[in-house]
Every structure is written in C-alpha cells, then in structure tokens.
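Summary of Year 1 activities. Much of the first year was spent building the evaluation harness for sequence design. The harness presents a backbone, in tokenized form, and records the residue chosen at every position. We chose the following record to illustrate the format because it has been used consistently in internal testing since the harness was completed.
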C-alpha cells in the first residue's frame, strides 16, 4: 500500500528495460534541444560581437527585476521537482503530489510574469524585428516559454497519474523523466537571464 491508502500500482514486468529506454530517450531528446539552443546562443554571440553598442544600449531596456524574479521562480520550481522525485523513490506519494502542484504553479507564475514583461515591451514599441537584439530576445524567450508550457502539460499529467496511484517506490520512471526535462528548462533560463539581462 502507498501512503495514500491505494493499492500500489504494479508496473509491467519488463519495467527495467522500459525505464532504461525512457532515460536514454529523454537524454537523446535533450541533446537535440541543446543543439537548438546552442545554435541560437551562438547566433547571439556573433551578433553581439558585431554590434556591441547596439546590444549594450538595448539590453538596458529589459526589466531586470522581473527577469530576476522569474529566475528565482524557476529555480524554486526545479527544487520542488527534485524533492518530489526523491519523495516517490521512498514511496511518499502525497509529498510528490504537493511538489508537482507547486512546480506547476510556479511554472504558471513564470509565464504570467513573462506575459506582463512582454506586454510592457510591446507598449514601449519593442517588437520582434525592432532590431537584431530584440529579434533574438523574443525568439529565445518565446522558445523557452513554449518549453515551459510543454513542461507544465507534462507536470499536470504526472499530477493526475499520481492521484490515481500510478507511481510508487518501485515504479516512478515517468516522474524522473519529466523531472529531468524540467531541470533542463530551468538550466536554459539560467543561461538566458545573464545573457540577455545582465551582460552589458
């Protein structure tokens, strides 16, 4: 029995193979994501070297406070994921649900803050295509936002399945896989924040 009182979910007998495949799959997928963001980071670097004065003046127009708040929000969400994964490894299903809920909530907070930040940018006449800096800014943060949205969807699925008693100390691979993905989303923002907001 799990700590929710439900009968413990019995995973397929070949779960060890499925778990290994799932872990390999997420790392291969993230490798392609690294190539995607790496290419965009390289483009940013090339144009920054080519137009240093433009990048210096334009990055000052970004809201560093909101960027910093969002950084704290995502780091906190990543911490909740880590706690949740460790909790389910010990069979603590209720704690996992709390952590999944908090992570999803913080992901939503991140997107709401980004919405208000973008709205303020638009009000000041800053759009994709304004110049090369803001084209890259909206491309990078927009792509990252889509990854946050995808992560939120996966977290909601994990939350629902946890409530149905699908995970336990003996079966929690999907939670681990989603956790790895969420840490990647957090790591990308940790690179984006200083790159866009701080380095003048």
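For this record, the design step produced the sequence shown next.
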């Amino acid at each position: 029995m799990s700590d929710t009182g439900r009968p413990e979910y019995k995973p397929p007998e070949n779960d060890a193979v499925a778990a290994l495949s799932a872990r390999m799959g997420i790392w291969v997928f993230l490798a392609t994501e690294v190539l995607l963001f790496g290419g965009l980071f390289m483009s940013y670097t090339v144009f920054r070297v080519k137009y240093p004065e433009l990048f210096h003046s334009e990055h000052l127009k970004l809201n560093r406070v909101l960027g910093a708040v969002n950084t704290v929000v995502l780091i906190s969400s990543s911490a909740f994921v880590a706690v949740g994964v460790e909790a389910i490894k010990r069979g603590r299903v209720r704690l996992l649900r709390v952590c999944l809920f908090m992570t999803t909530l913080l992901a939503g907070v991140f997107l709401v803050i980004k919405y208000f930040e973008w709205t303020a940018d638009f009000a000041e006449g800053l759009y994709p295509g304004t110049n090369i800096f803001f084209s890259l800014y909206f491309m990078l943060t927009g792509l990252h936002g889509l990854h946050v949205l995808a992560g939120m969807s996966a977290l909601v699925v994990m939350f629902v399945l946890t409530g149905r008693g699908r995970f336990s100390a003996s079966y929690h691979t999907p939670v681990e896989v989603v956790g790895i993905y969420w840490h990647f989303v957090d790591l990308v923002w940790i690179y984006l924040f200083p790159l866009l907001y701080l380095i003048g």
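DSSP finds six helices and no strands in the chain. Quantitative recovery figures across the full test set are reported in Table 2.
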